[in-house]
Amino acid sequence: MTVRMKDIAAELGVSVVTVSRALRNRPDIAEETKAKILERVKRLNYRPNLTARSLVTGRSSLVGLVVPDLIHPFFGEIAKGLSSKLREKEYYLLVSSSESDPQLEIDEVEHMLAHRLDCFVVASCRKDTDSLSRIREAGVPLILVDRRFPGFPSNFVGVDDVRAGELAVEHLIARGCTRIAHVRGPETSIGDARAEGYRAALKRHGIEVPADYMVTCGEASDSDGETRGWHAMEEILALKPRPDGLFCFNDTIAIGAMERAFEAGLRIPRDLAIVGCGNFHYSSKLRVPLASVDQKSREIGERTAQLIVNLLKKPAPARPRTILLEPELIARASSDLK
Q: Based on the domain organization, do 171 and 276 belong to the same domain?
């Protein structure tokens, strides 16, 4: 038999409102009364009816997160940071993966909207804003993470990807590299920004490189990033003169590139210094530990949670906010030429 809040109230001889206040840890209730209510709640295994509560309050206390890949450490860390901070404010996270499938992203958004979410967080894999427009039409606050869309105003939390590209190249230059190639990512705001940072750092230091030093590997998830990195290194090995430094769009691509370089007999970093992006938790445990740009993924999740709480406090929609975190270069053996 389902235990209801009014059953607990009747047993203890208090009002339903008093039980509700105790469950929400309100200060306007005696500690002794609160302790009795919480003890009875625990003993009876009572669970609040969140659907009924949302109909009364207009809030579900639920936040939706849609990401392209749950295996990817970057998105996993965002989810951890987001969930831990939301929990402190009694909000809870529903997580879904689009598996980098644009149609599945729309399907997941539609399904999650049925849960009367208080806010939506999306790392979109689409080339258009169709799924995001559906969230906006439903009147649900939206925050984008990792990737933005030009011309689509929205709250955004992410890392400064232009600066990420600059940091990687400046690090390689400081290590003595003069012929620096780049395995660029997809033609999205992220891939474009890191490539822009790559070019800007070279220009600032007066270094010119041939156009074919920028190798495109297309869309690369954790499942095929190493393979794409391996094939990208095939192109890099054929360049003349061969690069002495390489900045890869992400760490999985860098790992694949390193594997092919080892097969070709190159010594890393003596023959080729390599820097990735993402600073995955296993980057320090590789055969040659990988230097990488830390994207502050956990902090992205935490700052997103703070923004959600602030958005839900405001009675009217606020102007979209952009929060850009400063990336950090983590030096390791793959770029240490000394």
A: yes
Structural domain harbouring 310: 57-159+297-325
The strand pairing partners of 216, in sequence order, are: 184
Strand-by-strand arrangement of the 214-216 sheet:
214-216, 180-184, 245-248, 273-277, 291-294, 328-330
CATH number at residue 267: 3.40.50.2300
Q: Please give the model's pTM, rounded to 2 decimal places.
A: 0.80
pLDDT at 48: 62
Angle at 153 between CA 148 and CA 155, to 5 degrees: 70
Considering the domain architecture, whether residues 102 and 128 belong to the same structural domain is answered as: yes
Number of H helices, E strands in the chain: 12, 12
Closest Cα to residue 190, out of 155, 254, 248, 147?
147
Q: How far is CA 201 from CA 287, 292, 324, in A?
A: 29, 16, 19
- pLDDT digits over 297-334, tens only? 999 999 999 999 999 887 666 689 999 999 999 999 99
* End-to-end Cα spacing for the chain: 71
The C-alpha atoms of residue 82 and residue 221 are separated, in whole angstroms, by: 22
Phi, psi of 181 (to 5 degrees): -100, 165
H-helix or E-strand spanning residue 135: helix 130-137
Q: Report long-range pairs for 265-271 (Cβ below 8 Å, ≥24 apart).
A: 268/333, 268/334, 269/175, 269/333, 269/334, 269/335, 269/336, 269/337, 270/337, 271/244
CB neighbours of residue 53 within 10 Å: 15
One-letter amino acid identity for 2?
T
Q: Are residues 113 and 219 in the same domain?
A: no
